[in-house]
């Protein structure tokens, strides 16, 4: 197949003056190179498309591909991840990974939690702060955990995200509202084990690739998988592939969430245990990072003996079931 690749490169945005945190979710050149190399090794040809804006221009000029490997994150709004898939849908070009609905729903973490909760999947009680006045309406028990409602890569999360009283809640919400210009998700803090579950496939064909426990070493943000801890992953995180009763429960909840949210082809579901050891859904990552060494989904694949090329092959095969060539 002739496969196009959509993406946002960190380097391109850095040249335009964006901060390191603002572009944390975007790809490095070696990620796109690795995707291309894997696709070439599988016998496909590739074309680099780039951002959603570049995609729109090429589509309007008549460019088409047999399939698009979508890694475009977008920059603004709750629909930023959904933009490239929506454009591809409009021009009837098949693509890899989730559709616009799934990407918009899962980017807005509170919406995703409402959907999984309504589907009977356990998730910690939560509230959404849209203005600072909303803090007064919150009746959840402390400690709480707060974060921007629609960011990835743990942006906005640090040791200060764990909230112990109403004064801290007020102060932290004021900061997040001002800095990220979006609502704040406030949920009951879960003190137990934390997992990220790699899932491949779509619908009834979806399956768990592996479950990785996030174990944090001593550091400035103890017990919290923060933006800074993710940034210094090699020094501060000791991930391990696990297979015990709790991790199997995590896998079950992750797979159920994956299906009810309509995620496709490949990605991750993050879960965490409460103080009773019960596994709770935290958030979905249907447009997961694909850096061959640093991203969690390829890391889980590697831990389970699945090479990067084989991971890409499985993802392409899943997407290919949605169209006939």
From TrEMBL:
GO molecular function, one term: ATP binding
Superkingdom to which the source organism belongs: Bacteria
UniProt entry keywords in alphabetical sequence: ATP-binding, Ligase, Nucleotide-binding
InterPro entries, alphabetized: ATP-grasp, ATP_grasp_subdomain_1, Dala_Dala_lig_C
UniProt xrefs under Pfam families: Dala_Dala_lig_C (PF07478)
Keyword Nucleotide-binding: yes
Domain ATP-grasp intervals: 113-317
Family statement drawn from the similarity comment of this UniProt entry: Belongs to the D-alanine--D-alanine ligase family.
Name of this chain's protein: D-alanine--D-alanine ligase
Native species: Phyllobacterium endophyticum
């Amino acid at each position: 197949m002739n496969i196009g690749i959509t993406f946002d490169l960190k380097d391109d945005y850095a040249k335009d003056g964006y901060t390191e945190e603002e572009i944390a979710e975007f790809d490095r050149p070696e990620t796109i190179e690795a995707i291309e190399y894997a696709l070439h090794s599988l016998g496909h040809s590739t074309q680099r498309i780039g951002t959603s804006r570049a995609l729109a221009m090429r589509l309007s000029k008549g460019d088409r591909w047999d399939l698009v490997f979508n890694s475009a994150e977008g920059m603004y709004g709750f629909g930023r991840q959904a933009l490239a898939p929506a454009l591809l849908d409009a021009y009837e070009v098949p693509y890899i990974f989730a559709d616009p609905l799934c990407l918009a729903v899962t980017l807005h973490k509170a919406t995703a939690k409402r959907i999984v909760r309504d589907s009977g999947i356990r998730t910690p009680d939560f509230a959404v702060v849209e203005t600072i006045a909303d803090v007064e309406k919150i009746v959840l028990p402390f400690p709480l955990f707060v974060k921007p409602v629609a960011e990835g890569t743990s942006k906005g999360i640090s040791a200060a995200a764990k909230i112990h009283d109403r004064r801290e809640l007020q102060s932290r919400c004021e900061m997040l509202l001002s800095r990220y210009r979006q609502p704040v998700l406030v949920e009951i803090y879960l003190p137990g084990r934390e997992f990220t579950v790699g899932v491949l496939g779509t619908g009834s064909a979806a399956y768990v690739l592996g479950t990785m426990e996030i174990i944090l070493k001593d550091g400035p943000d103890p017990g919290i998988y923060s933006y800074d801890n993710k940034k210094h992953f090699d020094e501060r995180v000791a991930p391990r592939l696990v297979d015990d009763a709790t991790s199997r429960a995590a896998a079950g909840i992750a797979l159920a969430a994956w299906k009810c949210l309509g995620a496709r082809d490949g990605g991750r579901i993050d879960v965490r245990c409460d103080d009773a050891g019960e596994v709770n859904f935290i958030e979905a990552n249907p447009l997961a990072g694909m850096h061959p060494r640093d991203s969690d989904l390829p890391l889980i694949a590697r831990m389970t003996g699945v090479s990067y090329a084989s991971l890409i092959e499985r993802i392409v095969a899943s997407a290919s079931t949605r169209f006939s060539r």
